[in-house]
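Human: If only I could read backbone structure tokens as easily as an amino acid sequence. Underneath my words sits a plain record pairing an amino acid chain with its backbone structure tokens. Take your time, and here it is.
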Amino acid sequence: MTDLPRSEPESGGEAAPGLESTAPWSRLTRRADYQRAGRGRRAHREAFTLQANRRAEGETQAGPRIGLTVTKKVGNAVVRNRIRRRLREALRKIAPDAGLPDHDYVVMARDRALTLGFEALIAEIGAAFADLKRMKPRANPGGQSRERSS
């Protein structure tokens, strides 16, 4: 099972409209990546919070990476999986160039992500990415602590 939104079709057919970007989304896989994104900028929306942080300079992967989080507070496994499927599909509709290529993103879902209209969900995701692009980048993007001189 793959969780990541793709900009290229798996079967070799034509790409869906709006998904012709050069760099596809990649997936966050390690807990440390999620935690680093959590220390970055945030865009709060009704159905989710989008967190973003620039990757450390040593990481060479091109294109934005994304991860989804749906906590048990939201509902049982059926509800959480339904929300994840809706968010993955909405992210597929958003071109990967909505995100900055050297950034990691985490979508922290709320229960409203299940009941919000799908077109409204897509619009909110696009607006959240646009808000994060407009925000001033953090001074310490990698999330590493600075050495203190005493």
